[in-house]
Specification:
Elements: H1 6-21, H2 26-63
Length: 64
């Protein structure tokens, strides 16, 4: 769905966001979205590492 937006669609979305929220709020909103995405990536990475560690431990136990 989002892969079909393209440059003109992104520009339109940014213009609508500018009209709705105003120029003073956009940096705050962008910062909040960036922090949320960073936390999501960090949590996903930790979950993946934990799962990988558990699978590796189980494989090691089966070898014994």
């Amino acid at each position: 769905m989002l892969s079909n937006i393209g440059i003109p669609g992104l520009i339109l979305i940014l213009i609508i966001a500018l009209v709705i929220f105003g120029p003073k709020k956009l940096p705050e909103i962008g910062r909040a979205i960036g922090q949320s995405l960073g936390e999501f990536k960090k949590s996903t990475r930790e979950l993946t590492e934990d799962t990988f560690d558990e699978v590796k431990e189980k494989q090691d136990d089966e070898k014994l």
